[in-house]
Amino acid sequence: MKTSIIKIHSAYGVTETKLSGASVELTGKKGSGKSSVLDAIRYALTNRSDRDYVVKQGADEAEIIIETDTGLHIDRKQKAGMKTSSLGLKENGMNVQRPQSFLNDIITPLQLNPVEFIQKPIAEQNRIILNMIDYKWDLNTIQEWFGEIPKGVDYDQNILTVLDQIQSEKGVYYQTRQSINSDKLYKRKESEEIATSIPDNFDADKWEAYDTGKKYAELTQMQHTNSLIQRAQNFRDSYNNKLRGLEANKKIAISNANDEISGERSGLEKTVERLKAEIAAAQDKLLGLDSKLNDKIAVAEAQFNEAKAKLDADVGTANQYADMNPVDTSALQDEINTAEAMKKHLNEYARMKQRQKDVDELQEKSDALTEKIELARKLPGQILKEAKIPIEGLSVKDGIPLVHGLPLSNLSDGEKLDLCVDVALSNPSGLQIILIDGTERLDDESRAALYEKCKAKGLQFIATRTTNDNELKVTEL
Predict the structure, then answer these.
(1) Rounded distance, CA 261 to CA 86, Å?
(2) Which of 40, 117, 333, 384 is 20 to 30 Å apart from 473, CA to CA?
(3) Radius of gyration from C-alpha coordinates of the chain
(4) What is the CA angle 403-406-407, rounded to 5?
(5) What distance, in Å, lies between the first and last C-alpha atoms of the chain?
(6) Between helices 444-456 and 413-425, what is the axis angle to 10°?
(7) How far is 433 from 440, CA to CA, in rounded Å?
(8) How many CA atoms lie within 13 A of 396 on its CB side?
(9) Measured between alpha carbons, how far is 409 from 416 in angstroms, rounded to an integer?
(10) CB-based contacts of 187, cutoff 8 Å, min separation 6
(11) What is the DSSP annotation of 372-399?
């Protein structure tokens, strides 16, 4: 699609200008209206202007009409003092719905102002070029790729820049992975340090289930039984000694009784001699002394028999244990000692296992982030295979566009203008026109080569070049 007629009326510094569909060069001194022609065409197509006033001073209305060889009729009007314009757009006599959107689809910013492009910083030039890669995506696409919308990314950028930010060392994924790996190394080291304090082949389940209280009760019962056995044996061994002691106590009691009675008898006999009056009473009492002695002997015998019976009963109980052999408790004691020593490691063992689990979980998270980072690095290659590339020889490396292997910073102004020509040609159904303002910046050879390339490609161009001519001059090329 090419323009067949361009009419400009009272727009910017232009009073009246009409251009055919030919490629032309507008020449003249500064202020002769060269740039006004281009600004008017841009305004007609984009409804955007960098100037404060669109309507030429003194006029009531500015109007720009552009017709194409495909039957498209564009009529942009702007009344003086108004901030909005009106747009009439017909195709073969029929009104076009959403006219501005239609125009946006048939032009690119680069073809309408390529000189402005080459004057921008390299970073902005890169952004503009990357934005021209035709790949349909939205945040749902990002969600499908990564399972989430990564934070810290400017999603107003082109998809390749977005992916570059996602995989960047400054990106959330990379920074989070570094933090996770650092935490993982710390926990792994902590787990290894804990492991050095735990015995080899430590069976945590065994020692966790070991019932120390029950084993202590078993040990106590064994020790109690052994004590009874020992006491029984000692008691039985001392039976004869105890019996002799009881017999000695009996004899002592009898001896004491004899001595007591003998003394009493001696005293009474003396009393009889002194107290004749009491002889009868003393004799009666004397007669009762044998009975009293027998009673005391009987008491001594009874006490002896009672004590002996108790001793015999005790030795009978002792005999139940005295013939038994003491149980060896050393094995159980060693087992309990080992269990107690092992149980002291259970908390550290559990902490070590938790750290190992933490390390495994952190590794999974790190691996997941690595997968996402690698995905963000692989996707550009896939996108470039599937996307519509507007420029021949365009590739992308590390988020930087390359033209035939060279970054834009390595291209001359002339080569960048060639790039803009390629962009204008990239949409066959688009408007095949390019506006080149200020070609005097190019040397004669580069300018001629640029014009020739446009003509060879069948691209219409309208270029401006500052000369010493007082009046605006239109030259068809």
Answers:
(1) 157
(2) 117
(3) 60
(4) 90
(5) 19
(6) 10
(7) 20
(8) 30
(9) 10
(10) 355, 358, 359, 362
(11) HHHHHHHHHHHHHHHSB-SSTTEEEETT
> Residues near 247 by Cβ (< 8 Å), separated by ≥ 6?
304
- Token readout for 260 is 């007591």
Residue length of the chain: 477
The owner of tokens 């065409």 is: 41
User: Of 366, 365, 369, 389, whose CA–CA distance to 377 is shortest?
Assistant: 369
| Residue pointed to by tokens 């402005």 | 116
What tens-digit pLDDT sequence spans the chain (477 residues)? 899 999 999 999 899 999 988 999 999 998 888 899 999 999 999 998 888 889 998 899 999 999 999 999 999 999 998 888 999 999 999 999 899 989 988 888 778 887 777 778 888 878 777 777 778 889 999 999 999 999 999 888 888 888 888 988 889 999 999 999 999 999 999 999 998 989 988 898 998 999 989 988 988 998 888 888 888 888 877 877 888 888 888 888 888 888 888 888 888 877 767 777 667 766 777 787 888 888 888 888 888 888 888 888 877 777 878 788 888 889 989 988 999 988 888 999 999 999 999 999 999 999 999 999 999 888 887 887 777 766 777 777 777 888 888 888 888 877 877 777 777 776 677 898 989 888 888 888 888 888 888 888 888 999 999 999 888 899 988
Q: 3-state DSSP call for residue 27?
A: strand
Place of tokens 């030429």: 56
* DSSP strand pairing (433-436 vs 460-466): parallel
Strand residue runs (E) in 50-191:
61-68, 72-79, 86-91, 94-95
Q: Output the six-digit token pair for 105.
A: 């689809």
CA distances from 396 to 158, 238, 407, 425 (A): 12, 107, 9, 20
Beta bridge partners of 400: 397
DSSP letters along 448-460, please? HHHHHHHHHTT-E
User: What pairing do the DSSP bridges indicate for beta strands 460-466 and 24-28?
Assistant: parallel
**57 class by beta-carbon count within 10 Å (0-12 exposed, 13-18 middle, 19+ buried):** exposed
The residues pairing with 11 across neighbouring beta strands, listed in sequence order, are 14, 55
- How many helices (H) and strands (E) in the chain? 16, 13
| Spatial CB neighbours of 100, under 8 Å, sequence gap ≥ 6 | 47, 87
Q: Which residue has the tokens 């996707």?
A: 379
User: How far apart, in whole angstroms, are the C-alpha atoms of residue 115 and residue 126?
Assistant: 15
Distance of alpha carbon 12 from alpha carbon 31, whole angstroms? 11
* CB 74, CB 45: distance < 8 Å: yes
Tokens of 127: 């952004």
